[in-house]
Write a structure and sequence with these properties.
The complex is a heterodimer of chains A (257) and B (196). With 257 residues, chain A is α/β, with parallel strands linked by helices. Helices cover 39% and strands 20% of the residues of chain A. Chain A has a 7-stranded mixed beta sheet with strand order 3-2-4-1-5-9-8, with helices on both faces. In chain A, strands 6-7 form a two-stranded antiparallel sheet. In chain A, a hairpin with a 5-residue loop joins strand 6 and strand 7. Chain B folds into 3 domains: 46 residues, no CATH class; 44 residues, no CATH class; 58 residues, no CATH class. At the A-B interface, helix 6 of A face helix 1, helix 2, helix 4, helix 6 and helix 8 of B.
Chain lengths: 257, 196
Amino acid sequence: MSKINTDVNYKTMAGNARLLMLGESSHNTAGFKYEAIKALKQLKAAGFTHFAMEMLPRSMQEKIDFYQRTGKGFKVIQQYLNENWTWGYLVPKAYGELVKAARDIGLKVIALDISYELMAQMDEECEYDQYKKGDCFSTHTRRNKIWAGNIIGVLNASKQHRVVAFMHRWHAVQASDYEPGLDTIVQEKGMNSIRFIDFIGGISCLSKRQCEGGSAEVNSLKQHYFSREGFPYKHAVKAFQVHIPEQRVNQDGTLKW
Amino acid sequence: MVKHQLLALLVIFTVTPYVEGKSVSSSLWKELDINDPNLSKNTVMRQCERSLKYAVNELESWCEKAYRLGAWEALLYIGYHTGDGSRYVHEVKQRAANDEINAIRKLAWLYDDGLFIENNSTEAARLYELYLTKATDASPRLLKRIHYDLAKIYTKLEDWPSVINHAEYVLEHSEGDGSEALARELRDNAKTKSRQ
């Protein structure tokens, strides 16, 4: 791993990439969503035009577009996040704040994922014993391929388009040899201007009082905010990690670091 | 009256953390009973894989169970969770030494770029080639993926004829889904390099 950089600069890390994947090492950490808001502000200034989210299904795109145009109808989006993305204390609220911020900044919000009904159907169609041998694709891989198609669609629509995509890290890169990450799938579709930033550290709270630090760094770094080049697992594009301190996010979403 | 109110407050403060703490999105993570004797290996392994994203606190329970049911790939997920993949590496090496062809393939994958093991492209190539000689019933999709990985590895090793050979295999077995773009790039790059 390379040395740490305390001047966390998203524009520098993004370089000239047309697709920048922001990966959460855990969905449970509210702080990652607020760090993403910080990143979006810099990335919009650097020329990014779209913000794609794993947490929103394609079936909601019309409602998202309506909210994007009018500023009305956010309640429906927040309700969906409350019902489906309750991974920890303040987490659905944080995802909602991220959607709001993307709109306010002027990024076009894109829903990436498929419906849960379709996921269940995919689960029925291909079992572990089959997909590990390559007889069929797992639901995870099929979702990744669909997301890649959605992102490529946006990028191919205009050479000016640049996408920031927010997802769990194990969608961005591969965890197993039979489940490729978007870093590979998007390249297979002819787009290789991609970078990946992995959010690590932070604190995850299952309730207001039940919290656990998420940093795997040595003690002297756990409370530090920094970035560094590289990613400790398999990856097919230039990657960075941004470590946020093991500190709580305030009720209003403000950050201490 | 006051006693009842205090009792009610005590109940609220005792129960609330658990209600809030139910970190569950029912649509993405299925709440299954891990002790259900009817759970199949496939179901348990899927829970193991998904826990990496959706229920890390349950990962070790599900992945250990998957391992006991014969899905030794589960050890990889435990490695990601704990940051220590030595148990998985040991398992794969032992199985590869016993000539289990899928373990030979997994070991090649681990050596390629070095996951929980030192990066060794030469050994990755040797093991993948060995797998190809033994894998008589491998699916066409899997074979295509291995040839593609070999083309990438030989690019790192600057073995241009081998790159061209394996990239050509990928192109000849294209599924028309656009996935051949990278193989074409590898092949064309190898052709240019081999002419220099």
